[in-house]
């Protein structure tokens, strides 16, 4: 199981605390130091069943400074995935990957389902 997070993010800290409290073993990856690649993002997006917009950290400073709210609707999925692969701070976190299950963000109920 892979847990991709930004250690300073409070949501990531809550998710990590939940995983630890529930005895879930995982491999931690710092999204800022080891940005997901285009291939990884494309795979996770396909497995998640989520709209691609859910992979963007819409509350992040970089997202806002790049004015992506206005630009994303005009971009192709390919362009959006390539953009996400340029900087981990654009990617919503945490991301939990367990086999074919991909959870973006943190909700206890989603985590409970993903770690089964």
Characterize the structure shown.
- The chain is 41% helix and 14% strand.
- The protein is α+β, with helices and mostly antiparallel strands.
- It has six helices and four strands; from the N terminus they run βαβααααββα.
- Helix 1 links the parallel strand 1 and strand 2 (27-30).
- The model has no long low-confidence stretch (mean pLDDT 96).
- It has a four-stranded mixed sheet, sandwiched between helices.
- The chain has helices spanning 10-21, 38-48, 61-65, 68-71, 77-84, 108-114, and strands at residues 2-5, 27-30, 95-98, 101-104.
How would you summarize the topology of this molecule?
Blueprint: E1 2-5, H1 10-21, E2 27-30, H2 38-48, H3 61-65, H4 68-71, H5 77-84, E3 95-98, E4 101-104, H6 108-114
Parallel strand pairs: 1-2
Antiparallel strand pairs: 1-3, 3-4
Proportion of residues in extended strands: 5-15%
Oligomeric nature of the chains: single chain
Number of strands: 4
Sequence of secondary-structure elements: EHEHHHHEEH
**Number of helices in the DSSP assignment:** 6
Structural class: alpha+beta
Arrangement of strands in the largest sheet = 2-1-3-4
Shape: globular
Uncertain residue ranges: none
**Residue share in helix:** 40-55%
Q: How far from one another are the termini? A: 11 Å
C-alpha Rg (nearest Å): 14 Å
What is the averaged pLDDT score?
A: 96
């Amino acid at each position: 199981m892979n847990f991709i997070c930004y250690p300073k993010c409070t949501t990531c800290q809550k998710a990590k605390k939940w995983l630890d409290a529930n005895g879930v073993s995982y491999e931690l990856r710092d999204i800022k130091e080891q940005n997901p690649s285009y291939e990884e993002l494309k795979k996770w997006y396909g497995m998640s069943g989520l709209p691609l917009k859910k992979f963007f950290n819409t509350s992040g400073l970089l997202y806002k400074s790049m004015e992506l709210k206005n630009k994303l609707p005009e971009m192709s999925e390919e362009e959006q995935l390539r953009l996400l692969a340029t900087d981990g701070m654009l990617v919503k976190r945490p991301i939990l990957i367990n086999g074919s299950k991909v959870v973006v963000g943190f909700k206890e109920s989603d985590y409970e389902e993903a770690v089964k």
